[in-house]
Design goal:
The complex is a heterodimer of chains A (about 325) and B (about 350). With about 325 residues, chain A is an alpha/beta fold. Chain A folds into two domains: about 180 residues, Thiamin diphosphate (ThDP)-binding fold, Pyr/PP domains (Rossmann fold), CATH 3.40.50.970; about 130 residues, Rossmann fold. In chain A, the strands form three sheets. In chain A, strands 3-2-4-5-7-6-12 form a seven-stranded mixed beta sheet, sandwiched between helices. A five-stranded mixed beta sheet of chain A has the order 9-11-10-13-14, sandwiched between helices. The longest helix of chain A has 15 residues. The model of chain A has no long low-confidence stretch (mean pLDDT about 95). With about 350 residues, chain B is an alpha/beta fold. Chain B has a single domain, classed as Thiamin diphosphate (ThDP)-binding fold, Pyr/PP domains (Rossmann fold, 3-Layer(aba) Sandwich). In chain B, about 40% of the residues lie in helices and about 10% in strands. In chain B, the strands form two sheets. Chain B has a six-stranded parallel beta sheet, sandwiched between helices. A two-stranded antiparallel ribbon of chain B has the order 5-6. Chain B is globular, with a radius of gyration of 20 Å. The mean pLDDT of chain B is about 95. The chains are: A alpha/beta (about 325), B alpha/beta (about 350). At the A-B interface, helix 3, helix 4 and helix 5 of A face helix 5 and helix 6 of B.
Chain lengths: ~325, ~350
């Protein structure tokens, strides 16, 4: 079985889907001739032609809106936003147009499109090459949202996203692109959207993580064991709709939950997960839900190591939860 | 401006086939027979009668909101009549009443939409004037003006890449040309030679803001030069001229010639919407002047000069249209609202429903 890094898994998923369905089309800035700034679409233009993988004028709004027109007409566009920090430029198109089309038209028109975008910090990217903007889409009915954490999941989830009839935002952590390698089968497998992955079973406390925070949680395991804490790690994988049954079942089992994400704490996805736990599982909890997040500041350049959630901050939260 | 920078782009000539008194100045566009001319006349009357009725219904508190098309019908019906059934229309969220009728919408479907009934093709999901229909290839719009302009470019690209003759058509007003989406949509369509027509109905006002606050050039049509495709200026109160320029643009798009921007100049013969009091910002003389240019008056005079029409036929048509609108109003008002349990349906795709 071949080993791939994350961006190779993205490439493999796109390649297989473009071969399977001629309606799958990749578009974005530097997607065509250059094959993507991270090489996700490398070689596609030579292989599939200029109508299947192409460069657009430099406009995030245009990429999403033009892609939406393509999707309405029956193509399956995979639109690349070069950095997730720039997805804000297309926000009205995603929120009021792409996400609402099925609802406003009672399903007579719909937008089966994927908006792929590298996100995440720790890459010396400063304020606008580091963000994790998943929370701004959490309050947007009609959108699905995926953040994979490893190459195997990346391929299976991206293939599901492309085949899905609904618009899917697919954030890929650029810090993981070449940092994480794993076995990726070449056969045609998919992973259903909406299902979390149990990374590690445990009985004392649940760590809820996604994207690069999965690796962070795994790195913390030896120190958690030293403390005598048997942590369960759940990789959410799909942020919207998130896997509520898995979240609640784990909370019931351990009674303690720590949520870790890179985005700022206030209004982050962790807040919604906490609210669900408070509404539906408060009697089962032994301690308040803890959140380890980015700070409520823009993403800093020189101080990004201070900003990003760390093993130390994770352990502090775990200690507080266990001591409660 | 310094002359050393060079001349301003040449302003396009205004296309017109029928003079204000109904005299035919050019030829009747190829492909239009007597039956077509009479059908265009009927669609103008249907739109105007519907418009009058809708304003009455708002005043009576029976529908919540209406944005009128009065004064825009010549541009709407003329351009809409040139569309093929398979062409995709992205209407503005305000007007395009005559386009909807030219595309085949029935008064009952339109009234059901204004009453928000289950019999609306989109089952009361959208506020009034945001009409859409899958079977007619009219895509229901979102509200912010101009935001669908790049969608029409995307449809036009997809149709071209599939080898289909379909054209994506974006309708919008003069205010929408200040939106980023106008520039982006036209630019994308130019780069990809999309099968797209951009149809701007310029009524000189974006609610209360006049055209010279939207742009620094005299016409919208000349802005096409910046994108590298033709910009055409047409008298929007002349349904035949509007038909002709639209037909030419559609043919050009279908044959791989690329997009066209059309500016149809009209006079708004109503306030922006039922919530707008235009006396606060607009000189009444403009609308009075506009009444003299009205497409319904002009087209009737044209038909009479052609020997195709007379007062008796006009009265009969008006009575027929009046009856259709009254029946549609009664039927739509009596139709059920969407069932409460449908609230949660179709947030995510469930397969088609509706028309």
């Amino acid at each position: 079985m071949p080993k791939m890094n994350m961006v190779e898994a993205v490439h493999q998923a796109l390649l297989e889907e473009m071969e399977r369905d001629e309606n799958v089309v990749c578009l974005g800035e530097d997607v065509g001739r250059a094959g993507g700034v991270f090489h996700a679409t490398k070689g596609f233009q030579d292989r599939f032609g200029e109508n299947r993988s192409f460069d657009t004028p430099l406009s995030e709004l245009g990429i999403v809106a033009f892609g939406m027109g393509m999707a309405l007409y029956g193509l399956r566009p995979v639109a690349e936003i070069q950095f997730a920090d720039f997805i804000h430029l297309a926000y009205d198109q995603i929120y009021n147009n792409v996400a609402h089309m099925s609802y406003r038209s009672v399903g007579t028109y719909h937008c089966p499109m994927v908006i792929r975008s590298p996100h995440g910090g720790g890459v010396r990217g400063g304020l606008e090459h580091s963000q994790s903007p998943e929370a701004i889409f959490l309050n947007c009915p009609g959108i699905k949202m995926v953040i994979p954490s490893n190459p195997y999941d990346t391929k299976g989830l991206l293939k599901s996203a492309i085949r899905d009839e609904d618009p899917v935002i697919f954030f890929e952590h650029k810090g993981l692109y070449r940092a994480v390698t794993g076995e990726v089968p070449l056969d045609d497998y998919t992973i259903p959207l909406g299902e979390a992955r149990l990374v590690k079973e445990g009985k004392d406390l649940t760590l809820v993580v996604w994207g690069a925070m999965v690796q962070l949680a795994e790195r913390a395991v030896p120190q958690l064991e030293e403390r005598g804490v048997d942590a369960e790690i759940i990789d959410l994988r799909t942020i919207l709709p998130f896997d509520k049954p898995t979240l609640l079942a784990s909370a019931e089992k351990t009674g303690r939950v720590v949520i870790v994400h890179e985005a700022p704490k206030t209004g982050g996805v962790g807040g919604e997960l906490s609210a669900v736990l408070a509404e539906e599982a408060i009697d089962l909890l032994e301690a308040p839900v803890m959140r380890v997040c980015g700070y409520d500041t823009p993403f800093p350049y020189s101080l990004e190591g201070t900003y990003m959630p760390s093993v130390e901050r994770l352990l502090e939260a775990v200690d507080a939860s266990m001591a409660y | 401006m310094s002359e050393s920078i060079g001349p301003m782009p040449t302003q396009p000539r205004m296309h017109r086939l029928i003079a204000e008194d109904g005299t035919l100045e050019g030829g009747i566009p190829e492909g239009l027979g007597e039956a077509d001319l009479l059908e265009i006349h009927r669609l103008l009357h249907l739109s105007r009668a519907f418009d009058d009725q809708a304003f009455k219904l708002v005043r009576q508190g029976r529908i919540s909101f209406y944005a009128g098309s009065r004064g825009h019908e010549g541009a709407q019906v003329g351009s809409g009549y040139a569309l093929e059934a398979h062409d995709w229309v992205f209407p503005s969220p305000h007007r395009e009443l005559g386009v909807h009728f030219a595309k085949g919408a029935t008064p009952f479907e339109k009234m059901s939409h204004y009453f928000g009934r289950a019999t609306d093709p989109t089952q009361g999901r959208q506020m009034p004037n945001h009409f859409g229909s899958r079977k007619l290839n009219i895509v229901p719009p979102s509200t912010a003006v101009g935001t669908r302009i790049p969608h029409a470019a995307g449809v036009g690209f997809a149709a071209r890449s599939k080898g289909d003759p379909t054209v994506g058509v974006a309708y919008f007003g003069d205010g929408a040309t200040s939106m980023g989406e106008f520039h982006i949509g036209l630019n994308f369509a130019a780069v990809f030679r999309s099968q797209t027509v951009f149809f701007c109905i310029n009524n000189l006002w974006a609610i209360s803001v006049p055209l010279d606050r939207q742009m620094g050039v005299p016409t919208i049509a000349e802005r096409a030069a910046a994108y590298g495709f033709p910009g055409v200026l047409v008298d929007g109160n002349d349904p035949l001229a509007t038909y002709e320029v639209m037909k030419t643009a559609l043919d050009r798009a279908r044959s791989g010639g690329g997009p066209t921007l059309i500016e149809a100049k009209v006079v708004r013969l109503c306030a922006h919407t039922s919530f707008d009091d235009e006396s606060r910002y607009r000189d009444a003389a403009e609308a009075e002047e506009g009444e003299r240019k009205d497409s319904l008056v002009r087209f009737r005079a044209f038909l009479e000069k052609q020997g195709l029409w007379d007062a008796a036929k006009e009265a009969e048509l008006a009575a027929t249209v009046r009856r259709q609108i009254d029946e549609a109003t009664a039927e739509a008002e009596a139709a059920p609202l969407p069932a409460p349990e449908t609230l949660h349906r179709h947030v995510f795709y469930e397969g088609p429903e509706g028309d």
